[in-house]
Protein backbone atom coordinates (compact mmCIF):
# COMPACT_ATOMS: atom_id res chain seq x y z
CA UNK A 1 0.00 0.00 0.00
CA UNK A 2 1.42 3.38 -0.99
CA UNK A 3 2.29 5.62 1.96
CA UNK A 4 -0.01 8.42 0.75
CA UNK A 5 -2.97 6.04 1.15
CA UNK A 6 -2.08 5.10 4.72
CA UNK A 7 -3.95 6.52 7.67
CA UNK A 8 -1.94 4.57 10.25
CA UNK A 9 1.54 3.11 9.85
CA UNK A 10 3.07 1.43 12.92
CA UNK A 11 6.77 0.63 12.51
CA UNK A 12 8.83 -1.66 14.74
CA UNK A 13 6.82 -0.81 17.89
CA UNK A 14 7.87 -2.32 21.22
CA UNK A 15 6.05 -1.67 24.50
CA UNK A 16 7.34 -3.13 27.79
CA UNK A 17 6.10 -3.18 31.38
CA UNK A 18 8.63 -3.21 34.21
CA UNK A 19 7.24 -5.38 37.04
CA UNK A 20 8.68 -7.15 40.09
CA UNK A 21 9.09 -10.43 38.19
CA UNK A 22 10.97 -8.80 35.33
CA UNK A 23 10.19 -7.10 32.03
CA UNK A 24 6.87 -7.92 30.35
CA UNK A 25 7.42 -7.60 26.60
CA UNK A 26 3.76 -6.92 25.80
CA UNK A 27 4.42 -5.72 22.24
CA UNK A 28 7.65 -6.59 20.42
CA UNK A 29 8.73 -5.28 17.00
CA UNK A 30 5.17 -4.78 15.76
CA UNK A 31 4.48 -3.51 12.23
CA UNK A 32 0.96 -2.66 11.12
CA UNK A 33 -0.73 -0.62 8.38
CA UNK A 34 -4.26 0.69 7.96
CA UNK A 35 -5.68 2.56 4.98
CA UNK A 36 -8.39 5.22 4.84
CA UNK A 37 -11.88 3.74 5.24
CA UNK A 38 -10.57 0.24 6.08
CA UNK A 39 -11.51 -1.99 9.00
CA UNK A 40 -8.71 -4.10 10.44
CA UNK A 41 -9.48 -7.12 12.60
CA UNK A 42 -6.89 -7.52 15.37
CA UNK A 43 -7.12 -11.13 16.57
CA UNK A 44 -5.34 -13.05 19.32
CA UNK A 45 -5.64 -14.72 22.69
CA UNK A 46 -5.92 -12.81 25.96
CA UNK A 47 -2.48 -11.41 26.74
CA UNK A 48 -1.32 -11.30 23.11
CA UNK A 49 -0.80 -7.53 23.27
CA UNK A 50 -3.85 -6.28 21.35
CA UNK A 51 -5.11 -3.80 23.96
CA UNK A 52 -1.57 -2.62 24.76
CA UNK A 53 -1.10 -1.80 21.06
CA UNK A 54 -4.36 0.19 21.10
CA UNK A 55 -3.28 2.07 24.23
CA UNK A 56 0.06 2.74 22.55
CA UNK A 57 -1.71 4.34 19.57
CA UNK A 58 -3.71 6.51 21.98
CA UNK A 59 -0.57 7.27 24.05
CA UNK A 60 -2.39 5.91 27.12
CA UNK A 61 0.04 3.17 28.20
CA UNK A 62 0.22 3.59 32.01
CA UNK A 63 3.66 4.86 32.98
CA UNK A 64 4.97 3.49 35.23
CA UNK A 65 5.13 0.52 34.73
CA UNK A 66 4.67 0.72 30.94
CA UNK A 67 6.89 2.46 28.40
CA UNK A 68 7.29 2.58 24.65
CA UNK A 69 10.78 1.20 24.11
CA UNK A 70 11.12 1.93 20.40
CA UNK A 71 9.21 2.39 17.19
CA UNK A 72 7.06 4.88 15.33
CA UNK A 73 3.28 5.36 15.20
CA UNK A 74 2.62 7.42 12.08
CA UNK A 75 -0.93 8.80 11.94
CA UNK A 76 -1.75 10.92 8.90
CA UNK A 77 2.01 11.04 8.30
CA UNK A 78 2.92 12.39 11.78
CA UNK A 79 4.61 10.36 14.56
CA UNK A 80 2.26 10.33 17.56
CA UNK A 81 5.14 9.36 19.85
CA UNK A 82 6.80 12.73 19.17
CA UNK A 83 3.74 14.81 20.01
CA UNK A 84 3.38 16.64 23.33
CA UNK A 85 0.67 15.67 25.80
CA UNK A 86 -1.27 18.82 24.91
CA UNK A 87 -1.18 17.87 21.22
CA UNK A 88 -2.30 14.32 22.05
CA UNK A 89 -5.31 15.64 23.98
CA UNK A 90 -6.54 17.21 20.76
CA UNK A 91 -5.96 13.93 18.86
CA UNK A 92 -7.75 11.69 21.39
CA UNK A 93 -11.48 11.85 20.81
CA UNK A 94 -11.03 14.29 17.93
CA UNK A 95 -9.06 12.31 15.35
CA UNK A 96 -8.74 8.95 17.13
CA UNK A 97 -11.48 7.57 19.38
CA UNK A 98 -11.63 4.35 21.37
CA UNK A 99 -14.50 2.14 22.53
CA UNK A 100 -13.52 0.12 25.60
CA UNK A 101 -14.74 -3.36 26.59
CA UNK A 102 -17.04 -2.45 29.48
CA UNK A 103 -19.35 0.51 28.74
CA UNK A 104 -20.21 0.95 32.43
CA UNK A 105 -16.63 1.84 33.34
CA UNK A 106 -16.47 4.27 30.40
CA UNK A 107 -19.47 6.35 31.52
CA UNK A 108 -19.76 8.74 34.47
CA UNK A 109 -22.67 7.43 36.59
CA UNK A 110 -23.67 10.89 37.94
CA UNK A 111 -23.83 12.83 34.64
CA UNK A 112 -26.63 12.52 32.07
CA UNK A 113 -25.60 10.90 28.79
CA UNK A 114 -26.26 13.99 26.67
CA UNK A 115 -23.85 16.04 28.80
CA UNK A 116 -21.19 13.33 28.54
CA UNK A 117 -21.40 13.48 24.74
CA UNK A 118 -21.57 17.29 24.77
CA UNK A 119 -18.39 17.42 26.87
CA UNK A 120 -16.51 15.57 24.12
CA UNK A 121 -17.95 17.84 21.42
CA UNK A 122 -17.09 21.04 23.33
CA UNK A 123 -13.55 19.79 23.91
CA UNK A 124 -12.77 19.30 20.21
CA UNK A 125 -15.09 21.65 18.31
CA UNK A 126 -15.68 25.39 18.43
CA UNK A 127 -19.28 25.34 19.67
CA UNK A 128 -21.21 26.77 22.62
CA UNK A 129 -22.99 24.66 25.25
CA UNK A 130 -26.36 24.73 23.48
CA UNK A 131 -24.84 23.59 20.18
CA UNK A 132 -22.87 20.84 21.93
CA UNK A 133 -26.04 19.50 23.57
CA UNK A 134 -27.88 19.61 20.23
CA UNK A 135 -25.02 17.62 18.67
CA UNK A 136 -25.31 15.12 21.55
CA UNK A 137 -29.00 14.54 20.83
CA UNK A 138 -28.19 14.09 17.12
CA UNK A 139 -25.54 11.48 17.95
CA UNK A 140 -27.92 9.59 20.26
CA UNK A 141 -30.50 9.52 17.45
CA UNK A 142 -27.79 8.27 15.08
CA UNK A 143 -27.15 5.25 17.34
CA UNK A 144 -30.87 4.54 17.81
CA UNK A 145 -31.61 6.25 21.14
CA UNK A 146 -34.70 8.47 21.30
CA UNK A 147 -34.20 12.20 22.09
CA UNK A 148 -36.37 12.00 25.23
CA UNK A 149 -33.80 9.65 26.79
CA UNK A 150 -30.95 12.16 26.41
CA UNK A 151 -31.40 13.37 30.02
CA UNK A 152 -31.21 9.84 31.45
CA UNK A 153 -28.29 8.56 33.51
CA UNK A 154 -26.19 5.52 32.53
CA UNK A 155 -27.79 3.23 35.12
CA UNK A 156 -31.15 3.75 33.39
CA UNK A 157 -29.89 2.01 30.24
CA UNK A 158 -29.35 -1.67 29.47
CA UNK A 159 -25.90 -3.00 28.60
CA UNK A 160 -26.55 -2.78 24.87
CA UNK A 161 -27.91 0.77 25.14
CA UNK A 162 -24.93 1.86 27.25
CA UNK A 163 -22.65 0.54 24.53
CA UNK A 164 -24.61 2.62 22.01
CA UNK A 165 -23.99 5.70 24.18
CA UNK A 166 -20.25 4.92 24.25
CA UNK A 167 -20.27 4.58 20.45
CA UNK A 168 -22.07 7.95 20.20
CA UNK A 169 -19.37 9.58 22.38
CA UNK A 170 -16.60 8.00 20.29
CA UNK A 171 -18.10 9.18 16.98
CA UNK A 172 -19.31 12.61 18.15
CA UNK A 173 -16.35 14.45 16.61
CA UNK A 174 -16.15 12.40 13.38
CA UNK A 175 -12.80 10.73 14.14
CA UNK A 176 -10.67 9.43 11.27
CA UNK A 177 -9.85 6.28 13.28
CA UNK A 178 -12.07 4.32 15.67
CA UNK A 179 -10.49 1.66 17.89
CA UNK A 180 -13.03 -0.85 19.23
CA UNK A 181 -11.59 -3.02 22.02
CA UNK A 182 -13.87 -6.09 22.12
CA UNK A 183 -16.96 -3.83 22.15
CA UNK A 184 -19.44 -6.70 22.40
CA UNK A 185 -17.75 -8.88 25.06
CA UNK A 186 -20.22 -8.05 27.86
CA UNK A 187 -23.33 -8.32 25.67
CA UNK A 188 -25.59 -11.25 24.84
CA UNK A 189 -25.57 -12.66 21.31
CA UNK A 190 -28.66 -10.79 20.06
CA UNK A 191 -27.42 -7.41 21.31
CA UNK A 192 -23.92 -8.20 19.96
CA UNK A 193 -25.38 -8.55 16.47
CA UNK A 194 -27.27 -5.25 16.80
CA UNK A 195 -24.21 -3.34 18.01
CA UNK A 196 -21.98 -4.78 15.26
CA UNK A 197 -24.54 -3.93 12.59
CA UNK A 198 -24.79 -0.41 14.01
CA UNK A 199 -21.01 0.03 13.89
CA UNK A 200 -20.87 -1.21 10.28
CA UNK A 201 -23.65 1.19 9.27
CA UNK A 202 -22.02 4.18 11.00
CA UNK A 203 -18.67 3.33 9.44
CA UNK A 204 -20.29 3.40 5.99
CA UNK A 205 -21.99 6.73 6.71
CA UNK A 206 -18.95 8.46 8.20
CA UNK A 207 -16.20 6.65 6.21
CA UNK A 208 -14.26 6.06 9.43
CA UNK A 209 -11.32 3.66 9.55
CA UNK A 210 -11.59 1.11 12.33
CA UNK A 211 -9.47 -1.33 14.30
CA UNK A 212 -11.64 -4.11 15.70
CA UNK A 213 -9.86 -5.88 18.57
CA UNK A 214 -11.39 -9.29 19.17
CA UNK A 215 -10.76 -12.99 19.72
CA UNK A 216 -13.90 -13.92 17.80
CA UNK A 217 -13.28 -14.91 14.17
CA UNK A 218 -17.01 -14.66 13.50
CA UNK A 219 -16.92 -10.93 14.28
CA UNK A 220 -13.90 -10.57 11.98
CA UNK A 221 -15.76 -12.31 9.15
CA UNK A 222 -18.74 -10.03 9.65
CA UNK A 223 -17.06 -6.63 9.98
CA UNK A 224 -13.44 -6.51 8.76
CA UNK A 225 -11.59 -5.91 5.48
CA UNK A 226 -8.09 -6.93 6.63
CA UNK A 227 -6.95 -9.19 9.48
CA UNK A 228 -3.84 -9.18 11.67
CA UNK A 229 -3.24 -12.28 13.82
CA UNK A 230 -1.25 -11.49 16.95
CA UNK A 231 0.71 -13.88 19.17
CA UNK A 232 2.95 -13.04 22.15
CA UNK A 233 3.22 -9.39 21.24
CA UNK A 234 3.89 -9.87 17.51
CA UNK A 235 1.79 -9.92 14.35
CA UNK A 236 2.34 -13.40 12.88
CA UNK A 237 0.00 -13.13 9.88
CA UNK A 238 -1.59 -10.23 7.99
CA UNK A 239 -3.89 -10.47 4.98
CA UNK A 240 -7.11 -9.41 3.33
CA UNK A 241 -9.95 -11.20 5.12
CA UNK A 242 -10.95 -13.55 2.32
CA UNK A 243 -7.35 -14.64 1.65
CA UNK A 244 -6.77 -15.36 5.34
CA UNK A 245 -9.97 -17.37 5.79
CA UNK A 246 -9.39 -19.43 2.64
CA UNK A 247 -5.66 -19.94 3.14
CA UNK A 248 -4.39 -19.50 6.70
CA UNK A 249 -0.63 -20.12 6.54
CA UNK A 250 0.90 -19.56 9.97
CA UNK A 251 0.58 -22.63 12.25
CA UNK A 252 -0.99 -20.47 14.98
CA UNK A 253 -3.61 -19.10 12.57
CA UNK A 254 -4.36 -22.65 11.43
CA UNK A 255 -4.75 -23.67 15.06
CA UNK A 256 -7.29 -20.91 15.64
CA UNK A 257 -9.38 -22.02 12.65
CA UNK A 258 -9.05 -25.73 13.50
CA UNK A 259 -10.36 -25.08 17.02
CA UNK A 260 -13.69 -23.84 15.64
CA UNK A 261 -16.51 -26.44 15.66
CA UNK A 262 -17.70 -27.76 12.28
CA UNK A 263 -21.46 -27.30 12.11
CA UNK A 264 -21.92 -29.85 9.32
CA UNK A 265 -19.81 -32.59 10.95
CA UNK A 266 -20.11 -34.66 14.10
CA UNK A 267 -17.17 -34.04 16.45
CA UNK A 268 -16.52 -35.74 19.77
CA UNK A 269 -14.00 -33.10 20.79
CA UNK A 270 -12.55 -29.88 19.41
CA UNK A 271 -9.02 -29.65 18.08
CA UNK A 272 -6.80 -27.60 20.36
CA UNK A 273 -3.42 -25.90 20.12
CA UNK A 274 -1.05 -27.82 22.43
CA UNK A 275 0.58 -26.00 25.34
CA UNK A 276 0.00 -22.50 26.66
CA UNK A 277 0.96 -18.99 25.63
CA UNK A 278 4.48 -18.21 26.88
CA UNK A 279 5.14 -16.10 29.97
CA UNK A 280 5.60 -12.55 28.60
CA UNK A 281 8.43 -12.00 31.11
CA UNK A 282 10.26 -15.05 29.73
CA UNK A 283 9.54 -15.37 26.01
CA UNK A 284 11.32 -18.26 24.26
CA UNK A 285 14.17 -17.39 21.87
CA UNK A 286 13.50 -17.41 18.14
CA UNK A 287 9.88 -17.75 17.11
CA UNK A 288 7.69 -17.39 20.23
CA UNK A 289 5.29 -20.04 18.88
CA UNK A 290 7.89 -22.75 18.23
CA UNK A 291 7.37 -24.71 21.52
CA UNK A 292 3.73 -25.31 20.47
CA UNK A 293 4.32 -25.74 16.73
CA UNK A 294 4.16 -29.04 14.82
CA UNK A 295 6.20 -27.60 11.94
CA UNK A 296 9.07 -26.20 14.06
CA UNK A 297 12.63 -26.91 12.89
CA UNK A 298 15.99 -26.22 14.56
CA UNK A 299 16.14 -22.66 13.18
CA UNK A 300 12.80 -21.78 14.78
CA UNK A 301 14.34 -22.00 18.26
CA UNK A 302 17.11 -19.54 17.43
CA UNK A 303 15.97 -17.19 14.64
CA UNK A 304 13.25 -14.58 15.04
CA UNK A 305 11.17 -14.94 11.83
CA UNK A 306 10.67 -11.98 9.51
CA UNK A 307 7.40 -11.41 7.67
CA UNK A 308 7.35 -13.16 4.27
CA UNK A 309 4.87 -12.34 1.48
CA UNK A 310 3.28 -15.63 0.38
CA UNK A 311 0.87 -13.95 -2.07
CA UNK A 312 0.15 -10.28 -2.82
CA UNK A 313 -0.74 -8.54 0.44
CA UNK A 314 -0.57 -11.78 2.47
CA UNK A 315 2.31 -11.70 4.97
CA UNK A 316 3.30 -14.44 7.40
CA UNK A 317 6.05 -14.69 10.02
CA UNK A 318 6.91 -18.32 9.33
CA UNK A 319 9.50 -19.13 6.65
CA UNK A 320 8.83 -22.88 7.04
CA UNK A 321 5.15 -22.59 6.15
CA UNK A 322 5.82 -19.87 3.54
CA UNK A 323 8.18 -22.24 1.67
CA UNK A 324 5.69 -25.09 1.76
CA UNK A 325 2.93 -22.86 0.42
CA UNK A 326 0.32 -25.60 0.85
CA UNK A 327 -3.05 -25.21 2.43
CA UNK A 328 -3.80 -26.78 5.81
Summarize this structure as a short list of keywords or feature phrases.
four-stranded antiparallel beta sheet, 12 strands, alpha/beta, eight-stranded mixed beta sheet, 328 residues, 11 helices
Folded structure, characterized:
The protein has 328 residues and is of the alpha/beta class. The chain is 32% helix and 24% strand. It is built from 11 helices and 12 strands. It has helices at 50-58, 85-91, 103-106, 113-124, 129-142, 159-171, 189-206, 217-223, 241-246, 251-258, 319-324; strands at residues 6-19, 22-35, 39-43, 66-75, 78-79, 96-99, 177-181, 209-214, 226-231, 234-240, 308-311, 314-316. An 8-stranded mixed beta sheet has the order 6-7-8-3-9-10-12-11, with helices on both faces. Strands 2-1-4-5 form a 4-stranded antiparallel beta sheet, covered by helices on one side. A hairpin with a 2-residue loop joins β11 (308-311) and β12. The radius of gyration is 21 Å and the shape is globular.
Amino acid sequence: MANDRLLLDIRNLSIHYEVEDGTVRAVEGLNLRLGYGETLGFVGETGAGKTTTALGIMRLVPSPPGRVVKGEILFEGEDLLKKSEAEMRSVRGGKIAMIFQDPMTSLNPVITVDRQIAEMVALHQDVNEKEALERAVEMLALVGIRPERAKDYPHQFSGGMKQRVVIAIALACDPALLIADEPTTALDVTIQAQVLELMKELKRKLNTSMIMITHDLGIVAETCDKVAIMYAGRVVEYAEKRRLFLNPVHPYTQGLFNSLPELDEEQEELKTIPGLMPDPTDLPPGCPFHPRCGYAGPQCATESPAMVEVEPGHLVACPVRARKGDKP
